[in-house]
Amino acid sequence: MKPVLTNRAAIRTVAVIDDDEAVRDSLALLLETHDCPVVTYASAEAFLDEGDASRFACLIVDVRMDGMSGLELFAELREGSYLPPVIFLTGHGDVPMAVNALKDGASDFMEKPCDQDLLLTRVQACLSEDQQRRGNAQHQQKVVELLADLTPREREVLQEILLGKLNKQIADRLDISTKTVEVHRARIFTKMHVHSAMELAAMLKEVPTSDWFS
């Protein structure tokens, strides 16, 4: 399970990673003028020295840079605990590479020189996407913490409930009494803060099965 991402509503800072100083400065001015905090980096290596991509709500990354390329940086950051939405900046010849990056999870790409209004629109979309991702991650961790409080038998009953089994079917399956199943079901609902099997299924829908009892 990924770590909790706190203060998601407060995280709006954008990182601009480009080895062209003029591009860095112009993007920083544009974003800051529209109340969007910015930190700029002259290379992928300089960004990695910071060590924490989760500090940012969006990364604007040049595809081609001296040293580590933007695509290489993206590949490395994908191995980390959290990668915010990424917008790639490309020259005309880099478009196919940028399209491939989209398939690997990048949020968008724009050709240089960028249209300012379009860039602002896409950054705002990334900020919204980042807030949603962080909210989902926090929800998942909360659910996993609730699951961790279940006993082994309650976990077995839970899995049967999610399969839509009736109490008697669960009792037969686990070789316990129907009354015992009723007790376990009630305790599960109390511990998970739900009132029905439907509500329980909805809570667990976005949580990977591998995280349920980790």
Automatic annotation (TrEMBL):
The modification 4-aspartylphosphate is found at D62. GO terms for molecular function: DNA binding. PROSITE patterns: HTH_LUXR_1, HTH_LUXR_2, RESPONSE_REGULATORY. Keywords: DNA-binding, Phosphoprotein, Transcription, Transcription regulation, Two-component regulatory system. Residues 13-127 form the Response regulatory domain. Residues 143-208 form the HTH luxR-type domain. Signal peptide: none annotated. One of its GO terms (biological process) is phosphorelay signal transduction system. This is Response regulator transcription factor. It comes from Deefgea piscis.
